[in-house]
Amino acid sequence: MAKPRIEELGWCPTPIGEISLRRRWDPVARTDVHEIRLDDEFLMSSLFTAAEEEMARLALAELRAGGRTEGFDVVVGGLGLGYTAAAVLDDPGVRSLTVIEALDAVVDWHERGLVPDAGALSTDPRCRLFHGDFFAAVATPGGLLSGEPDRVFDAVIVDIDHSPRHVLDPSHADFYTTEGVGRLADHLGPAGVFALWSDDPPDDAYLEVLGTVLDRVRAEVVAFPNPYRDEPSANTVYLGTRPVGPTPARAAAPGR
Q1: Is the pLDDT of residue 156 over 90?
Q2: How far from the centroid of its chain's Cα atoms is residue 32's Cα?
Q3: Which residues of 215-234 are buried (b: 16+ CB within 10 A; e: fewer)?
Q4: Helix (H, G, I), strand (E, B) or coil at 74
Q5: 134: number of Cβ within 10 Å
Q6: If 160 and its partner were Cys, which of 51, 78, 82, 189 is the partner (CB 3.0–4.6 Å)?
Q7: For the chain, give me the number of helices (H) and strands (E)?
Q8: What is d(CA 152, CA 188) in angstroms, rounded to the nearest whole number?
Q9: Half-sphere exposure in the Cβ direction for 216 (13 Å, CA)
Q10: Which band of pLDDT confidence, cut at 50, 70 and 90, is reported for residue 254?
């Protein structure tokens, strides 16, 4: 029997809406596409993963630019279809990866093998999937992970909201303020790297916020083919590095 053109693989109500995983045959791309949706919004598609994967490579390259070559301990905020995490594990310099995902259903889909290449995460001994609220963990004094107080990481890579201005839940908004970036920096070791994915073009105001706390702040535009358009699409990756010395005072940036 032929596979149905659209198949719902998972569905679950959550505090921020109904989340679902589906597979569909795309006649334009001529391939099976896996998608995660929140209510009627698309969160992630296996057809568009270039920027998420490039974000991981950029963050790790930034660590090497600071003089490190291996032994990287990395946190990824947001699991999704797992492409960011898999790109982190592709780097032989990574010692450990912890993925923090707020929605238990998403972790379950990976553990049940419902997403493409789920085994790449579940079988790698360096990787663990952690069910928790990444934003709440950042805002909580102490460590990002329960049971590991005051542990710091070489890189924190985040792909959760659509952009700093288009968040999935109002409770996330504080993360994108100067105070929020300062709290995030507390979880980075000296010269540790922060990387953030955004669906919007570079935001000068957010770059200014990052620059009040972090060094070497920049926005990288990552272009990729889009089979539905005659021209490439693009996402933004924000990067910043925690200073080797004390982090700067967290004075609010203008207008924030």
Answers
A1: yes
A2: 23
A3: ebbebeebeeeeeeeeeeeb
A4: strand
A5: 22
A6: 78
A7: 7, 11
A8: 5
A9: 18
A10: very low
In sequence order, what are the beta bridge partners of 196?
158, 238
pLDDT at 114 over 70: yes
Say which residues have a Cβ less than 8 Å from residue 248's Cβ, sequence separation at least 6.
212, 213
- Report CA torsion sign: 185, 186, 187, 189: positive
Per-residue pLDDT, averaged over 120-130, amounts to 92
- Domain boundaries, given as residue ranges, for the chain: 48-241
Place of tokens 């890579």: 157
- Residue percentage of the chain with pLDDT more than 90: 77
Residue type, 55: M
pLDDT at position 2: 61
pTM: 0.92
Separation of alpha carbons 79 and 114, rounded Å: 13
Cβ 178 vs Cβ 212: under 8 Å: yes
Which fold, 48-241?
Rossmann fold (3.40.50)
